[in-house]
Amino acid sequence: MQAGQLLAAAVVGNLSDKIGRRPPVLAGVLSAGLLSFGYLYAISIHSLWLTVVLSVLMWGIAYQGFNGVFPSLFPELFRTRVRVTGMAIGQNVGTTLAALTPTLFVAVAPPGTANIPLKIGSLTFGICLVAAFAAFTTRETYRMRLNDLGDRNAVPVPKAEYERLRGEVMAGSTKTADAQHLGNQVRS
């Protein structure tokens, strides 16, 4: 499963450089939330193979829409001066809240409760909807110059110029000092 996660994260990360950071995050969060219903159902009926298949789909593929883009999107929301602090506080508060969800799940549906997959799946999907709303309302960061990251008024690099620079950087064929300097300033 880890090999699939690694490949999916790389593919989605590359895709986010072409279509933006928000679309893969939205697709990943919402599809993983929807798959949680099937995953929890598979556990409830004690189907090992269905559980494994849905686990691979949910964690190995769907979740990578978020996981493959998050390392770029989240730090890019902050100016360089506060990037580490903003990232660290947000990441640690989020990790703490996520660590508390099993307690919430047991409070909502203690062992032996009827329809646990539906109850916990709904709660999980609700949490995913909140995350999707946050991703939807955040500003897009791809095609931004490095020095403009975190600036709410920054203007993205024109798409044609961005694609040209990205192609040069990906090919390792930056031709002039100006293009190289600009290429270093554009997130690729």
Reconstruct the topology from this structure:
Blueprint lengths: L1 H18 L2 H23 L3 H15 L1 H4 L2 H7 L6 H17 L1 H8 L7 H22 L21 H13 L5 H9 L3
Helix pairs in contact: 1-3, 2-3, 2-8, 9-10
GO molecular function, one term: transmembrane transporter activity
Protein name: Major facilitator transporter
Membrane topology: Multi-pass membrane protein
Mean pLDDT: 89
Q: Which series of helices and strands comes N to C?
A: HHHHHHHHHH
Q: Count the strands?
A: 0
- Outline: globular
Keywords: Cell membrane, Membrane, Transmembrane, Transmembrane helix, Transport
Transmembrane segments: 25-42, 48-66, 87-110, 116-136
Membrane topology: Multi-pass membrane protein
GO molecular function, one term: transmembrane transporter activity
Structure description:
With 188 residues, the chain is mostly helical. It folds into 2 domains: 2-143, no CATH class; 157-188. 72% of the residues lie in helices and 0% in strands. The chain is built from 10 helices and no strands. α2 (22-44) packs antiparallel against α8 (116-137). The longest helix has 23 residues, at 22-44. The chain is globular, with a radius of gyration of 20 Å. The two termini are 27 Å apart. This is Major facilitator transporter. The chain crosses the membrane at residues 25-42, 48-66, 87-110, 116-136. It is found in: Cell membrane.
